[in-house]
Amino acid sequence: MNARTPDWHVAAAAMQADGRMFIGGKRLHAQAGETFDCLSPIDGRKLGAVARGRTADIDAAVASARSAFEDGRWAKKAPAVRKKVLQRFSEKILAARDELALLETLDMGKPIQYSLAVDVGAVARTIAWYAEAVDKIYDEIAPTAHTALALITREPMGVIGAVVPWNYPMIMAGWKLGPALAAGNSVVLKPSEKSPLTALRLAEIAVEAGLPEGVFNVVPGYGHEAGEALALHMDVDAIGFTGSTRVGRKMLEYAGRSNLKRVYNELGGKSAFVVFEDYADIARAAKTVAGSMFFNQGESCNAPSRVFVHESVADEFLAVVAAEAPKYQPGDPLSGKAAMGAIVDAVQLQTVLGYIDAGHREGARMLTGGKQVRAETGGFFVEPTVFEGVTNQMKIAREEIFGPVMSVIRFKTEDEAVAMANDSTYGLQASVWSHNIDRAHRVARALHAGTVHVNQYDEDDMTVPFGGFKQSGNGRDKSLHAFDKYTELKTTWIRIDGQ
């Protein structure tokens, strides 16, 4: 394809998706021979048959990963060697950018321009960043008495099970793979059954880049089958999970039922976006929340779906949001122009529409949107939807919707805004809009969230951790802190006899 002016419809028609699993460096059918259909949410087309992994397949993948770890084909390579392989992996991801972007868009529905500009670049940068980090992390010598030498070393854990969601399949995989592989671990990745295709292709690209066979394995399948088998496996040392809070609880349960493996959960969110009356540019705040809320069809765990606005500026704020929302009307994701794409599947479509119905039933006023559109295409599209007159106790304000639905809540005082923002089982992200520096610091400190943005939303890079408080989980992806999840600290105490 021409990277500058591809015809995405032509490329999509010619796409041949390989749904076989990837174990030990080879594409394989499921041992039971079972498959499930991978359907595009854009128009319902069948993208291919995907191997339905079960316990036997997970066993094979874990055995492959364990063998690769124990014989040291990757774990015992010098950091500088692992660095070069991961750098080539990053470069090859960029070289395959059109193919990966098209797979991502067809599989989960996001606009192709964002798959290209955001997702492919993000996973490549993640792998490259951890490649650069791996030979710059030093171990420690403890300040002991002169009769001892105490070494504190960071060692790979062994076999890492990674389970990632369907909303950002490549990015979430990259956030797990980067630090886990850089540290010397082997990985078994279970992608969502709703969007497995790019994970499978990434595994092939990794081997093409020189990653030894068996170090990175991918088993697609359903969560209650392949995912559960991976989390229960007695030879998996840790689970890195991104997904719903409901399944995150199961991951902890599975660890308790098996080998007490480490579980690092990055879970759901209901992020608060708090706008105070002293912020001078209300239009900027309103445009920012619209862009952040409706990006990726609202299918983002950190989407600012609870918007708290001071009553004195609420009408002005809502007027701008109402004008902005139609700009995100869903379009053809392959057109290169759509601002918003398709909901991932029919089940999630009905979930989103059900929450919109709940908002009506509980008395919220719909400012704009609220309907399914483009149904004639065979795809799953929902208009950007904004409710006002919402209370913090309504279902649409308390539960994660994972769709383009925003709830706007008015407040009178700073204390009221903070109390409502914190009155949530979630604590992933938040945002404070104020030109009063004391207030900005005070409120940022008071909010119970893993990341608090001030006068912006979702600006970040690989240098800072991503994760939440409360039922948004305990894991931290990104930054050097991610190495803590995939390494063990060992103390080696050496006695030095005096003369």
Q: What's the short story on this structure?
A:
The chain has about 500 residues and is α/β, with parallel strands linked by helices. Helices cover about 35% and strands about 20% of the residues. The mean pLDDT is about 95.
What is the general shape? globular
Number of beta-strand segments: 23
Roughly how many Å is the radius of gyration?
A: 23 Å
End-to-end Cα distance, whole Å, is: 73 Å
Mean pLDDT: 97
- Overall helicity: 25-40%
Describe this structure in words.
- With 499 residues, this protein is of the alpha/beta class.
- It has 15 helices and 23 strands.
- It has helices at 8-14, 55-70, 79-95, 97-108, 112-133, 169-182, 197-208, 223-232, 245-257, 282-294, 314-324, 346-361, 395-398, 414-422, 437-446; strands at 21-23, 26-28, 35-39, 46-51, 140-141, 148-156, 159-163, 186-190, 216-218, 238-242, 262-266, 272-275, 306-310, 365-368, 372-373, 381-382, 385-388, 405-411, 426-427, 429-433, 451-454, 469-470, 487-495.
- Strands 14-17-18-13-12-20-21 form a seven-stranded mixed beta sheet, with helices on both faces. The protein has a five-stranded parallel beta sheet with strand order 9-8-7-10-11, with helices on both faces.
- Strand 10 (238-242), helix 9 (245-257) and strand 11 form a beta-alpha-beta unit.
- The N and C termini lie far apart (73 Å).
- The mean pLDDT is 97.
Question: Could you name the key traits of this structure?
Answer:
499 residues, alpha/beta, seven-stranded mixed beta sheet, five-stranded parallel beta sheet, 23 strands, globular
Secondary structure: elements and pairs:
Layout: H1 8-14, E1 21-23, E2 26-28, E3 35-39, E4 46-51, H2 55-70, H3 79-95, H4 97-108, H5 112-133, E5 140-141, E6 148-156, E7 159-163, H6 169-182, E8 186-190, H7 197-208, E9 216-218, H8 223-232, E10 238-242, H9 245-257, E11 262-266, E12 272-275, H10 282-294, E13 306-310, H11 314-324, H12 346-361, E14 365-368, E15 372-373, E16 381-382, E17 385-388, H13 395-398, E18 405-411, H14 414-422, E19 426-427, E20 429-433, H15 437-446, E21 451-454, E22 469-470, E23 487-495
Parallel strand pairs: 7-8, 7-10, 8-9, 10-11, 12-13, 12-20, 13-18, 17-18, 20-21
Antiparallel strand pairs: 1-2, 3-4, 5-6, 6-23, 14-17, 15-16, 19-22
Helix pairs in contact: 2-8, 3-5, 3-7, 4-5, 4-7, 5-6, 10-11
